[in-house]
């Protein structure tokens, strides 16, 4: 209840304007930390016992109000703290996780590259070359969330010695590290995505994540965050649906609320069906994680299914608002635009379905 109050009181009234200006409401970060939403999993930062189911519902609530804000939390908490939690030494975890949980330290997760998105497992080109206790990193990253103001970015790079992907904690401001905001985005506009250049960036061996030995370990982090993105997709759909029900009851045509027309009710029922099925699937995937039985294919199936139905839902909502559906002030346009990014990040719809297909057939169609 406290989380919902915070979101309705402090975030909802400003979300459209921050989206429109392509700015992020950084002043809200300490409150998110105070509510315990950053790092609820790790022993170093957990404020109270919680389950994957609880964390999933929180992701839904965040995206229901602002998918951009949910994405910030996902990058800080799921991807970056997840990478440090899964791959870091006890010293690294103790150093980074507590200040990230309060929001004093902001993180980013640098995997995608200009020339490598879906194929990062094989196509990653950024290199890390070790000389003594120093690694020298060269390459480029694209789309990296929070990177314009992050204190630390986990950079994934290929070790020139053994060709395996390794993770490095690169502090903002390190010589050779440049993050440039990606402008003119038409989805998740409040999220500060950056192009990163790494030109001879030096990182000490103490800042390499020792428990990341290959891309398989990166995939563990992605599996965990993907399930939460599935919850976010449902939350996004709920946000658009709620605005649409309100609008349909208030808007009159032919002397009646448009909500009284059968075709409008059909659309609302289809939206509710999508949302309900999405919640059911997400609940099951979170239960599997709580039982330590979640596989890559479970979170991939949930991400693919909920983002596909989310896209249909926001389109039905937009349609129901007529012309006002494309304007920010009526509560649906932002969700419709943001849905396009959620559909494609953390593994595109296709890649997630191919992960499921591999589990079903035993044949990997994407290598
Ligand atoms: P591509 O890989 O070029 O794909 C283009 C199309 O080809 C897609 O439809 C895809 O499904 C299809 N395709 C590719 N390969 C196959 C295949 N084998 N079979 C069938 N179809 C295929 N990355 C980070 O590292 N950190 C972040 O913080 C981050 N945040 C992001 C935030 C936003 C708003 C966005 C848009 C992206 C973000 N990303 C981030 C990157 C994101 O993960 C990638 O965009 C995503 O993985 C897809 O890569 P791509 O955009 O290069 O598309």
Automatic annotation (TrEMBL):
The keyword Nucleus does not apply. Residues 109-201 form the Acyl-CoA oxidase/dehydrogenase middle domain. Residues 2-104 form the Acyl-CoA dehydrogenase/oxidase N-terminal domain. Pfam families: Acyl-CoA_dh_1 (PF00441), Acyl-CoA_dh_M (PF02770), Acyl-CoA_dh_N (PF02771). PROSITE patterns: ACYL_COA_DH_2 (PS00073). Signal peptide: none annotated. Its cofactor is FAD. Keywords: FAD, Flavoprotein, Oxidoreductase. The keyword Flavoprotein applies. Residues 222-360 form the Acyl-CoA dehydrogenase/oxidase C-terminal domain. Belongs to the acyl-CoA dehydrogenase family. This is Acyl-CoA dehydrogenase family protein. It comes from Cellulomonas fengjieae. The lineage of its organism: Bacteria, Bacillati, Actinomycetota, Actinomycetes, Micrococcales.
């Amino acid at each position: 209840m406290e989380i919902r109050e915070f979101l309705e009181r402090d975030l909802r009234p400003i979300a459209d304007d921050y989206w429109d200006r392509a700015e992020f409401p950084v002043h809200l970060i300490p409150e998110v930390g105070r509510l315990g939403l950053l790092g609820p999993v790790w022993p170093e930062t957990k404020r109270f016992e919680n389950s994957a189911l609880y964390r999933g519902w929180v992701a839904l609530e965040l995206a229901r109000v602002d998918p951009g804000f949910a994405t910030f939390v996902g990058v800080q908490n799921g991807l970056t703290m997840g990478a440090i939690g899964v791959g870091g030494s006890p010293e690294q975890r103790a150093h980074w996780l507590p200040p990230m949980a309060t929001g004093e330290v902001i993180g980013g997760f640098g995997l995608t590259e200009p020339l490598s998105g879906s194929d990062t497992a094989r196509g990653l080109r950024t290199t890390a070359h070790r000389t003594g206790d120093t690694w020298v990193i060269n390459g480029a990253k694209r789309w990296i969330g929070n990177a314009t103001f992050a204190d630390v970015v986990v950079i994934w790079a290929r070790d020139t010695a053994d060709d395996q992907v390794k993770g490095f904690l690169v502090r903002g401001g390190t010589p050779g590290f440049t993050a440039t905001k990606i402008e003119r985005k038409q989805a998740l506009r409040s999220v500060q995505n950056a192009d990163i250049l790494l030109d001879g960036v030096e990182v000490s061996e103490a800042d390499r994540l020792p428990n990341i030995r290959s891309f398989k370990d990166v995939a563990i982090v992605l599996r965990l965050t993907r399930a939460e993105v599935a919850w976010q997709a449902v939350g996004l759909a709920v946000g658009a649906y709620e605005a649409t029900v309100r609008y349909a009851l208030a808007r009159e045509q032919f002397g009646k609320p448009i909500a009284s027309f059968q075709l409008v009710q059909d659309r609302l029922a289809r939206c509710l069906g999508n949302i309900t099925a999405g919640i059911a699937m997400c609940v099951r995937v979170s239960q599997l994680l709580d039982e330590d039985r979640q596989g890559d294919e479970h979170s991939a199936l949930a991400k693919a299914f909920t983002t596909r139905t989310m896209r249909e839902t926001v389109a039905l909502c937009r349609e129901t608002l007529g012309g006002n559906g494309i304007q920010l002030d009526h509560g649906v346009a932002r969700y419709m635009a943001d849905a396009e990014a959620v559909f494609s990040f953390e593994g595109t719809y296709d890649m997630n379905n191919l992960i499921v297909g591999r589990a079903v057939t035993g044949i990997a169609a994407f290598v």
